[in-house]
Amino acid sequence: MKSTLFSLVFSLLFFPVLSQGIKFEEGNFQQLVNLARQQNKLLMVEVYLNGCPHCAALAPVLQEKKVGEFFNPAFVSSKIEANSPISKELQLQKGITYPEFPLLFFFDANGQLIHQAAPAERPNRAEFITEVIKHGNEALTPTLRTSNYAARYAKGERGLEFLVNYGKYAKATKDITRQSQIGNDFAKLLTKPADMESANGFYIISRLINDFQNPLAKHFFANLPKYQKYNNAENPKAVKDAAEAIIYNTLYGPRTNSLKASEVVAMREAMIKLGNPAKVVAPRTLLKELEAHFREKNTPAATARFNEYRKIATMDFLDYSYIVRLFNEKATENSYVPSLILWVNDGAKLFKTSNANHTKDKLADLYNDLSKAYLRTGKKAEGKKAAQEALTIAKAAKIDTKPYADQLAKCN
pTM of the entire structure? Predict the structure, then answer.
């Protein structure tokens, strides 16, 4: 009887410890770093997303005895939800983003990111355990850490698995330039349609390609129907999301200030082809189109594009105010001025009928910009009338009148 009771007490007291997986600590990032330093360990932070099936699949693996036996002696570990305050703190402090879920981030005693991993689901528990421990081993081995990838890349390493991992690390650390370079490397490795259209090809396109001109992106957009098979219950818009991400990253990526107008137009048309209404797409690309036309010294094309936009867009007074100033500052010749007069008139009407609390200095600025446009075409009388209107509005609003008086003086 004593033996049986002793065995029961022993199992209750000690079995949970012996079967424990990873021990997760709580606290803010600095507290976790301090704890890791005190224990002479590295810090591992798992980032998961509520509702993510891959995160749910990983959770029980992290509680496996074998995983705990490996991680607990070497790491202080914590787990955070992607949308939690501590997650936002981590992203802000370390300048990182999350390319996918779940993610394992490893930090040294100074809180510096040294390794990143995205454990892939495996067909059975034993292989999944091996997968997780492999990433821990890489974090403990300086030459295998993702923080050493730049050195390996500089030495010429270009294997597909390496590039995938480096691409995810570059994305997480917001290294946009390196992302583009790696994208070009992928295009050299995946040249056959079958490879580009495979599950691995779509994964690379959807997660790691950030330029519309990349050969993989070009093939993707030219063959969208062939990729529809990758829409699934987990993400029924996988193909559309991938396409829009490439377009967005191109519009606002490393080439944002050198894009050709034809490229921006092609991206606008691609978004419409994806099923987005033209009225919804137009505002997303308008400014990039206008900027490209101005870089190409094609003011008539910029004017025509904005006039087309006005036909389908719901305009606000501030829209007109911004566009009028943009054309005055960027246009390389004066063919836009007749259209600008119409824009100012429509903007002024919107100001008077709008319920928005627009300040009158903006209306004064609109007429001041109209005066500047008139002067560009040598129409001093019209410019003087617009400048006088701007000054009258400024006086009534009791704001600084100097900019408007100075413009009026230029008209004399």
Answer: 0.85
